[in-house]
Amino acid sequence: MAYQTWQDKLEGACREFNIAVPVFQIVSDRRGGRTAWSSTVTIYGTTHSARFWYDGKNLNNAREDAAEVALGWLSTTAGSSPASSPATSRSGW
């Protein structure tokens, strides 16, 4: 089985639930003489933040972190049954 990134898994889940692809945004925070970087991802109208801040050379790690958070939310929110997926049941969203 081929290695899949969290970003790939999140995109696949969005396709499965028939919702728009994730939109990632890189954010920065000036900390003294350095800049810390993180990421957010928006899916189904909800924005999820990465849990950690990263050095600039590790921006992909920030996107992976945000994708993992969002996938966990989507899995919990959508449930395991197709009847409760965002594509077919939008009450309470």
UniProtKB/TrEMBL annotation:
Top-level taxon: Eukaryota
Name of the protein in question: DRBM domain-containing protein
